[in-house]
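Recall the central idea of this unit: under ordinary conditions, the amino acid sequence of a chain determines the structure it adopts. In this exercise we apply that idea directly, starting from the sequence alone.
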Amino acid sequence: MKRAYLIELAIFRDYGTQLLGLGLLVAVLISVGMQTALAAPAVLSCMFFMMGAMGAAAYDEQSGWGLFRLTMPLSRRDVVLGRYGAIVTLGLGGMAAGVAVALVLGAAASAGLLPGGLSETFRLDADLMRVMALVTAFCLLIGATVASVVTPVYFRLGQTKATQLLPTVIVMLFVLPVVFLGNSGLLDGGLPGLELVSRLLDLLGTAQGTALGCAAMVALSAALLCVSAALSLRLYETREL
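Accordingly, the structure predicted from this sequence is:
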């Protein structure tokens, strides 16, 4: 597995560098546009997880790399686990880059180095840091969920066929439920369990609740990726290349 993981990282090197540059630009623009840096780590975490899964699948079909890789001393299990390791590394790297942008802007704001009224806008305090951690963990969960859904499809069908199918899958799993709940009126007090959700949101507003919420979302992200990796391995072992 280690050899496969290092091979994935070597392939990702140029792509990851380009993505990092784009991500830093996106983080700065979003921070300036929203007048706060707390969203930067969240956006980059989600973005890097999704782009990592999709970019890796695209590399498999470039110059027949997916076929050539299996001629190396690597098992299909190594390939799958190495791929997931690279995706997680890229996703966490995006989160780290976003945190770095937020902290740099916050430090510059505290030192009064930003022009105009931006120093007051980008100054970080304990409450904003807690919100940033919670939002980042939530977007990490979203990115990990999308990667967990699309990666097994890529391993089973390949990038070309999967690209034709995945838009429908994404819409059915992530868009239609939101549209249905938003237009059905169930959120206007008619959906069972709304009181529990309201209490959970109140709990997340406390320091202890934020810590528990972040830990729960990170643990759920890890669990989803583990289940997805097991499914990918089963699908990839039965695929004829």
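The CA atoms of residues 69 and 147 lie 22 Å apart.
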